[in-house]
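pls ignore typos typing on phone
iron/sulfur cluster + seq
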Amino acid sequence: MNTTVMKDRSQERQKRMLADYFKRLAVSRENGWKNVYTFVPGNLTELILSFDLLPVLPEINALQSGMRKKSGAFIQEAEKAGHSEDVCAYVKSDLGMLRGGNIGPTGEPLPSPDLLLLSYTGCFTFMKWFEILREETGAPTLMLHVPFQGEGRVTREMRDYVIRQLKTEVIPALEKLSGKAYDESRLAEMLARSRAMEDDLVHVLESAKRKPSPIDGYFAAVYYIGPIFSAFRGTEDAQHYYRELREEVDARIAQGIGPMTPDGPMPPEKFRLVVEGPPAWTHFNELWRMFHAEGAVIVASTYTKVGGVYDDGFRHDPSDPLGTLADYCLGCYTNRSMQDRVNMIARYVKDYDADGFMINSVKSCNSFSAGQLLILREVERLTGRPGGFFESDLVDPRYFSAANIKNRVESYLQMLDQRRTGGASA
Amino acid sequence: MEAPVITAPAPVAPIVERCEALLNDLTFETVRQWKENHPGKKAIGWLPVWAPRELILAAGMLPVGVMGASDRLEIVKGDAYYQSYICHLPRSVLELGLNGSLDVLDGVLFPSTCDVIRNLSGMWRILFPQKYVRYVDVPQNPAMSLGGRFFAEDLRAIAAELGEVSGTPVTHESLRAAFAVCNANRRAVHDLYALRVAKPWCVPSAELYLLVRAGALLPVEEHTALIREYMQLAEASAAKPMDMARVTVRGCFCEQPPLDLIRTIERSGCWIMDDDWLIAWRWFKEDLPLEGDPFENMARVFVTDSPACPTMHLAHGVKGAALKAEIKNTGSEGVLFMAPSFCDPALLDQPMIQAAIEKAGIPWSALLYAENTGQFQVIREQAGTFADALKLS
Amino acid sequence: MKCFVGIDLGSTTTKSVVLDAEGRVIGRGITNSRSNYEVACDVARREAFHSVRFALCARALEERQMDALVRTALMDSLTRGFRLAQHRAQLAALRECLTEDATQVESFHAGRDIKGPVAEIIVEMEALAEPLFSAGATLKSDFFRDIAASQYAAGAKKRSCPERRPFEALLSVFDKAILRTENRILEPDFATGAGRAIEVALAEALLSEQNAEAIRSTLREAFNVPLDVIDSAGTGYGRARLPFEKRQIRSEILCHGLGAHHMFPNTRTVLDIGGQDTKAIQVDEAGLVRMFQMNDRCAAGCGRYLGYIADEMNLGLHELGPLAQQSKAPVKINSTCTVFAGAEIRDRLTLGQKREDILAGLHRAVMLRAMSLLARSGGIHDEFTFTGGVARNETAVSVLRKLVAQNYGERTLNISTDSIYTGALGAALFALRDAPAEVAA
Amino acid sequence: MTRQITCGIDVGSSAVKCVLLEDGEGARRVLAKVTERLRHRNVTEVAAIVRDRALAEAGLSAEDLAYVASTGEGEQVHFRTGHFFGMTTHARGAVELVPAARACLDVGALHTRAIVFDERGRVLSHRMTSQCASGSGQFLENIGRYLGVALEEIGSLSCSSSKPEKCSSICAVLAETDVINMVSRGLAVEDILCGIHQSMAGRFMKLLQSAGATGTVAITGGLASDTGLLRALREEGAKQGAKVELVAHADAIHAGALGAALWGGHRLRKLASMGVAAVQ
Ligand SMILES: Nc1ncnc2c1ncn2[C@@H]1O[C@H](COP(=O)(O)OP(=O)(O)O)[C@@H](O)[C@H]1O
Ligand SMILES: Nc1ncnc2c1ncn2[C@@H]1O[C@H](COP(=O)(O)OP(=O)(O)O)[C@@H](O)[C@H]1O
Ligand code: SF4
Ligand code: SF4
Ligand code: SF4
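k done
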């Protein structure tokens, strides 16, 4: 842990972007800036920004609280207020933070919501979450119902439904809140920038197809997706960030070096894995270490697609702003059918030539977790590569049992090792 | 204080026994027999909370409620697909599917109830590729021009698909006829609950539960007739009024409480005046209109007349107000929240509703269960204490 | 003689297996796990070496072409004699600790009489030692801890009276003392113990003077064969704390897979139920793991569950299975939460349910969970091997057999009396296979 | 009415408690209180033992009892007159022992309950720990046995700890293994115990607060005499800024039995006023 970690330019930029953003939020009340709370999957960041409104993403705050080891206390606070131990800890962490004065992850105050834009995409808990925030703060909720791809595809009716909601409810509400008229050309301009950064992001994520991989497609990639999945998609800052990131990764490829970890450069690549499921934020580095210490690099992950699946070709399309936003919302990872999720993981295992895949099943998230054991079986069947399974939670530290997880990860990697070398020495 | 054991009044006993046998029909033998007696006809299952069984009926098929397997089924294969922190319902439903009991169904509708059932629909497609599977997304945007319109279109699409499955296309006429049948059924269930409120000692909770639950397997008209028959007998029963605490139960709209749990609560001194188990049989208060475009009608009634169920996103304050109104209507003294473990919709809603009724000075208590809970001491203790407190105050 | 040692430091028991250079199992040892891992590991290993020496004795006698009946009887009394000596040494240590702790507890409970009854109980326990190891006697448990605990508790119950000699206080003396006794390395020197055992055995065998002398020297010789440990490997829950290098530490999954393959080469599916872990493992024709699943964080339905039950019913682990076998109408039990097990049993007993029926239901519940895990790991393929401590329980085995037939049809089910050693065997095989060339040479 | 003697028997999952109460006209008086731990013994038998011991202590015979009120798992008390639910009796007992209390925390062998009540001991609201049995008396007892520490010593040992070791496992079974692991890492017994107390205290304070307890809170049940838990609870309360004052009465373990005896008396008077005699 004491190794000095060299900070890349992109990393510095992301830090600054985040610091600026939280600072802006902290002083938004004084300046009369209005905000819109919304969720990562199906977020309408460009649309919100085009009205000069500030997007706030409670999921990001919760995960930050987790990484900063504050979520445990927040969750306790929410449970004291009557919330069950059984339910999603993101909600409880956020509620606990709110009850403790809504001091954000950086220690600066967050403004209470002016509008709760309930982009109901791929998770039922979203509805409850904003109902709870509505109860606590009195802010109105605005429902954007994104139908689930139950049949594995997006129908005309689904798309029209979302567009109609954007036109007749979301845009008027944002106009009213901001006092500004909807400006489609401005939105299109931002969407064009989104498109550019999406290209760069896909380039970066797909660099992991190389051997050795220059990046970690899960632990490191969750940093890479930060700007584009949150309040920055469509901004110039974010566009620069992705350009820089792309250059840095290209440079790493040119030098033939592997991923950087919090403990320094990664040991030589020994295992290539795909991971399904969100990380355990409270023990993020500890979990990462269980992998990188054994030479296991994650070449692809589904979690890095929660805020948008771009590697199957989707890009925001400036020529059809509302249509493209609808497609974006409908196409998020959690809004996809079980079969789609299976296919995606199987495709990753093959395309990235992974030795296997592991599922981190988080207790909080029914949207992700219910059915993962079938995914495990199906992906194994489709790829012939073995899957591994362990359990933790996103932000509830009580559910991270290090010894237990380590045992499973180690056993899994030893199994891969044995399968590779076993034939020879047995 | 312990309450005396409630014994079933004799005249209804055969009906109750029949219903209990239906509850325990875990191989769906009832459906198999129905199909034998109706050659060429098909059966379509549906999961909680609510699904448009009218459409199934209109396509000339038998709607079958798949409400889980209570505490009677040993779960082996179902557990293989679920982590310990997921509720119990999908395990037993999968077990029924994987052990062949549900083979008798020609398709299943998975309504948009929660992420677990939603994902189960995808699992079903993978595990049973030959069967018709449909995810029924219900409108969360209640504006008729938005959610309503989307829903009407989707209902039309589902009707067309069901028509294909059965070979009998759904027409406006057949759908209206189905509306009429289901309207009568809903009215019977509403009346049964009204009788329960008026004379709780004549309609023990467990019997009421069994009677409504019988609707999962019986043809709708037969179910309606059964309820009517029971009510006649029960009203005439000689059961004596008893002084017990009157409570409203909330939280069991999806995974069902075991029958013994319902009995335990009554035995520990609570009359259950209202509940939300099997809520689908009382989903609408008003009748579905028999004139006009039936799809539009169904969508409209859905967005305007659905109960304040935790699976729905509703306007600010609606859920608390609705519960307070129910409490008043049924003469309840308190609320017993009874949610399945790990049920996100029920458990996340609970604190908000609790706050609302607390503000109104209505006492409440809360407990957790699973459909296979076999141990009731703790529940008895909690329900009993609650009953004591209500009676002593 | 060259030896390779595998140690499986489990959450309940610590096992050790010794292999010779040809990969044959020549010794096994087991003890209960305890807070001092080094001691547990040490005891298990010593036990394994004792069994090696007894095996060597048996082999030597065999070579002498001794009458089989006489030989068996001789070996039997030899082992019993040795066990008795061991037991007595442990009792002596326990006596010391008990006496000290009784004094302390008595001073804590002013005015109570603790030392008196404790002293009486020790005497009683010492008197019970001999019959425990007499010919034909069966032990309630393999572990001194369990035997001593149940004898002590019986003695304490007899002597307790609420005012003067509270039952609780008497028991707490034992709880303290056994802990200290157990974590002490107690090795009465093997030669003395064995030497005495040889004399007793020879006397019991009624051999002629000259015959006896010959056998005596054969046995002594066998006992003195030098045993060189070439390499060791460790596995099990506590493996990270074993005094081994990283290369010598193996995951339980691999060890159980390899161990099961070694015992039953056609094994394709392995189920291991240990103290707080259940594992379902799929292996290929070379014993390599293809896939595995472990129970989730909840320890419900694992071996410890049965341990708690045995405790609650005041039975030995050995007795659970046979009692459950007598059931005609098993009750249905849904919850396998270990912690609530006791309360549930009491509840059911008061409802008038029979002990054997409850036990049968509990066993079924445990095996149902295992079946789910097996299904999760990809089902049961032929042949199917059941390992771990719970495989010693015949009811668990017969329930499993039924469930397998119900769900998968005909499958060969392999169970060995040594299945609790599977993990340790796998580890020993790794030690044999992977010993660096320079050590093995 | 002359002397009215009622008997309360609290059948817990680890111990049976009995209180004899003289509760006629004039002052109430506890005549005897007895606890007997079950430790593998038959409940019905132990219930009879505690009653007989209590009777002997008070110099009475079974015929002198006007009402035998059971609570807890009282079905097993065959000689009961009536039964009251556990929280009903704990609340009543708590307010009797600590008149200022409007809430109590009942920490028993398997469950912990936070109960809020009025000045007459009638339950207003309550919370219980979930089905998972971690952090209960039984757990502490098992750990104690592993560590070779008697129940009575746990409290003082824990209080002597200066650097408690956190114990995070939720499951009591896994926690036990964690504890063994800690010992093998050479951690001191008092630090382990204190860590366990702290994690229990965190859960319990949460329970109390979500039940809405404020002001004086009585600790009842077996663990009330555990000074280590008490210290941890107070520290946790201070840390969380909870407005509660925790009081552990010396007779706290008998709160349930006492409450049962009191409710029994109440019921007896009510029956008498209705002209009915309590039948056994
Ligand atoms: N002789 C026996 N008869 C029945 N069950 C036994 C016996 N010995 C051990 N067991 C069971 O095996 C379990 C321990 O299994 P083991 O494989 O040693 O676990 P671990 O490796 O976790 O220590 C015990 O909890 C007990 O249930
Ligand atoms: N002196 C003590 N110090 C610490 N714990 C104690 C003490 N006496 C009893 N206990 C604990 O109290 C528990 C029993 O409490 P009790 O309220 O009688 O529970 P229950 O009613 O469930 O049997 C036991 O599990 C034991 O651990
Ligand atoms: S359930 Fe999952 S997707 Fe939904 S809010 Fe919680 S963590 Fe996010
Ligand atoms: S019980 Fe709750 S969580 Fe489970 S399927 Fe039903 S609604 Fe979903
Ligand atoms: S206490 Fe019981 S239910 Fe909870 S995790 Fe442990 S074994 Fe499982």
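Residues 4-85+254-273 of chain D form a domain with the Nucleotidyltransferase; domain 5 fold (CATH 3.30.420.40). The interface with chain B takes residues 73, 82-88, 111, 122-126, 128, 130-131, 267 of chain D (CB under 8 Å). more later
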